[in-house]
Design brief:
Blueprint lengths: L2 H14 L1 E3 H7 L1 H6 L2 H12 L3 E5 L2 E4 L2
Antiparallel strand pairs: 1-3, 2-3
Amino acid sequence: MTINEFEKAHQRLVNTGFFTRTWFNENLKACAKEGGCNFTTIGGVFEILGIAEYTQKATYKYLA
């Protein structure tokens, strides 16, 4: 995972209120190809930062 990929995921979370595996797979293809755990790693960092929570299957919700 690169910082650019993380920033794109963060922008998605903030701009739409959600970060989903579907969006991740479609928009961060190289990162997704490295492994599905990258999705949960990004989401987990969002949770540690206190800006998102895992609310339903494959979805992190922004905590504005």
